[in-house]
């Protein structure tokens, strides 16, 4: 009996590290396949939601991750081919190995993803729509930038930093705990902190510009 | 750490139709099986399966695409629920994208808990027919005592009376407005798909799965009723949300008379009956590129609604006209229908306050 999981899982790591690696594979593969950012974020969300319900020790994290990316492609109308996902994941997990040929192993992996998709839908009960922080982030970032001095803005890669922080944010299950609007604000706040930039007139305001309670989030994030 | 589970296809093909011996097969939904050591089964233990969660199945109806059962929810004090079994096709690519998106949308709609939409309580996997590449899914809904068809049948003479009709219409349009604001077209509004509780709360059912059904062949040779179909649907022209408002118009009239307004027998007959009553539309309103031409219907001047519905008020009549407007672009929207003067006294209805 062929065991795919022995290839795919390294069960020597703690669940947190395994999650981190599996989600990083989702991101790497998503970028290589030119998937939409929402699809990749969706895949990471599905991944964490799945392990919220299921015992992490019972599953092959990389197979779940690959399936999440496949399913997320369908949810976000960004169809990704199973073959591409299998190949790209294989490469991400085993950077030094030769690519898979069309042999038995490929077909087994492919079949496993199809089966595993059913498992995901069953566990998640088809709850597959998510309001992503991406659109809020873009919207808020625009407002904050309009508010700030143009010469400061021009010097900072604020957009890129926010985007990277947002991607990092999806690596831990705590990404399920926050409203998308709060995530967007917190990311911008953190990015500005990183550059030591303050928003003008902020000290005069009755409330801080970010108003929402982001501190819990913030500490959680830093602890990563 | 435990041995990681292996996902081999050879595992999945075994014992797909085996049932656990402890299970009383009489109580099983016919065909429900516990696929064995496939990955799907690994959750059967921790998560509930259909036969484990729901008991005492009674058949309610076989519709065009699904079978509906009444059952008790064992995990919720034996609360009565309605289970709708739909069969989804699986391909080499897994579950079709449309199915995932449509069922996902139903789940998302549910989070709004709209009072005029039937509650979707759960979604369960049923039997996986691997050779045919099909999977049964059970949509678990709250059970509602009656549909509007039964309700009208059982209504004693002289009928519902104007206040109850107004109250039902307001709820019906609120439900439709909610679906439309979520970009869902019901497409098949009719009394059988409108549920009504003992407290006369209206709840829309049977929507949102048109692409799951896709081109599947009908389960039973039931005749899909044409009576509530909008002209543009009968003419197979392009259509939009306004088709639902046409159906609301047909239902509105039926609430008064307790018989269908346009009981057609075929597409042309249905259109003929519509034209007999609402009158021949202007030739410019007839959609282009359709097989039935404007000239193929005899000219009609229409029948005034008050001749057919004696107890309709002037406002009611005006709303009915706006719903049963031939041209889909001129037909009133759900939002505007709710703001129609006909409903101005509706604040008096307890349900809408
Ligand atoms: N939640 C429910 N509670 C009680 N009866 C229901 C419920 N849902 C559907 N039914 C009954 O079953 C019939 C068929 O259900 P429906 O969802 O309309 O399926 P179909 O697609 O087969 O028409 C309905 O006309 C109604 O009488
Ligand atoms: Mg129906």
UniProtKB/TrEMBL annotation, chain A:
Keywords: Cyclin. Residues 24-122 form the Cyclin-like domain. SUPFAM superfamilies: Cyclin-like (SSF47954). Coiled coil: none annotated. The keyword Endoplasmic reticulum does not apply. The keyword Oxidoreductase does not apply. Belongs to the cyclin family. Cyclin-like FAM58 subfamily. This is Cyclin-Q. It comes from Limulus polyphemus. The lineage of its organism: Eukaryota, Metazoa, Ecdysozoa, Arthropoda, Chelicerata.
From TrEMBL, chain B:
Belongs to the protein kinase superfamily. CMGC Ser/Thr protein kinase family. CDC2/CDKX subfamily. This is Cyclin-dependent kinase 6-like. It comes from Limulus polyphemus (Atlantic horseshoe crab). The keyword DNA repair does not apply. Gene3D superfamilies: Phosphorylase Kinase, domain 1 (3.30.200.20), Transferase(Phosphotransferase) domain 1 (1.10.510.10). CDD domains: STKc_CDK4_6_like. SUPFAM superfamilies: Protein kinase-like (PK-like). InterPro entries: CDK, Kinase-like_dom_sf, Prot_kinase_dom, Ser/Thr_kinase_AS. Signal peptide: none annotated. Residues 54-343 form the Protein kinase domain. Keywords: ATP-binding, Kinase, Nucleotide-binding, Serine/threonine-protein kinase, Transferase. Pfam families: Pkinase (PF00069). Residues 1-30 are annotated as: Disordered.
């Amino acid at each position: 009996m062929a065991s795919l999981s022995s290839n795919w899982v390294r069960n020597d790591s703690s669940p947190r590290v395994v999650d981190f690696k599996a989600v990083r594979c989702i991101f790497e593969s998503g970028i290589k396949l030119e998937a939409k950012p929402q699809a990749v974020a969706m895949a990471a969300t599905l991944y964490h939601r799945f392990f919220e319900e299921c015992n992490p020790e019972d599953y092959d994290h990389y197979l779940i991750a690959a399936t999440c990316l496949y399913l997320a492609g369908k949810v976000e109308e960004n169809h990704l081919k199973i073959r591409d996902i299998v190949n790209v994941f294989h490469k991400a997990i085993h950077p030094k190995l030769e690519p898979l040929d069309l042999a038995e192993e490929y077909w087994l992996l492919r079949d496993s993803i199809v089966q595993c998709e059913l498992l995901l839908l069953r566990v998640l009960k088809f709850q597959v729509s998510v309001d992503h922080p991406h659109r809020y982030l873009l919207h808020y970032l625009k407002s904050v930038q309009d508010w700030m001095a143009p010469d400061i803005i021009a010097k900072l890669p604020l957009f890129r930093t926010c985007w990277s922080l947002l991607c990092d944010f999806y690596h831990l299950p705590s990404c399920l705990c926050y409203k998308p609007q709060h995530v967007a604000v917190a990311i911008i706040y953190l990015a500005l902190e990183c550059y030591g930039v303050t928003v003008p007139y902020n000290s005069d305001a009755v409330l801080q510009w970010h108003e929402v309670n982001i501190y819990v989030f913030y500490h959680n994030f830093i602890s990563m | 750490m435990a041995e990681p589970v292996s996902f081999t296809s050879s595992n999945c093909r075994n014992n797909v139709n085996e049932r656990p011996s402890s299970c009383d097969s009489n109580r099983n939904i016919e065909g429900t099986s516990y696929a064995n050591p496939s990955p799907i089964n690994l959750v059967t233990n921790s998560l509930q399966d259909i036969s484990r969660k729901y008991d005492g199945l009674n058949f309610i109806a076989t519709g065009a695409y699904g079978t509906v059962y009444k059952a008790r929810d064992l995990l919720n004090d034996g609360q009565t629920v309605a289970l709708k079994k739909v069969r989804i096709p699986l391909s080499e690519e897994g579950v079709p994208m449309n199915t995932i998106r449509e069922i996902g949308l139903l789940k998302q709609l549910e989070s709004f808990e709209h009072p005029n939409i039937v509650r979707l309580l759960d979604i369960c996997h049923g039997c996986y027919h691997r050779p045919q590449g099909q999977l049964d899914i059970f949509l678990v809904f709250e059970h509602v005592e009656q549909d509007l068809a039964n309700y009208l049948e059982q209504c004693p003479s002289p009928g519902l009376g104007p206040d109850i009709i107004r109250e039902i219409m307001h709820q019906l349009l609120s439900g439709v407005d909610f679906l439309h604001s979520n970009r869902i077209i019901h497409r098949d509004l009719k009394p059988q798909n409108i549920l009504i509780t003992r407290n006369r709360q209206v709840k829309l059912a049977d929507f949102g799965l048109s692409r799951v059904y896709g081109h599947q062949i009908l389960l039973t040779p039931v005749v899909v009723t044409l009576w509530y179909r909008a002209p543009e649907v009968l003419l197979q022209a392009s259509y939009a949300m306004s088709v639902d408002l046409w159906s609301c118009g047909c239902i509105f009239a039926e609430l008064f008379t307790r018989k269908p307004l346009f009981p057609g027998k075929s597409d042309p007959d249905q259109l003929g009956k519509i034209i007999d009553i609402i009158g021949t539309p202007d030739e410019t309103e007839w959609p282009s590129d359709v097989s039935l031409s404007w000239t193929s219907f005899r000219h009609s001047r229409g029948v005034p609604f008050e001749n057919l519905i004696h107890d309709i008020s002037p406002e009611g009549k005006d709303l009915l006209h706006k719903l049963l407007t031939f041209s889909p672009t001129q037909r009133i929207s759900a939002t505007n229908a709710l703001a129609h003067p006909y409903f101005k006294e509706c604040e008096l209805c307890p349900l809408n306050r």
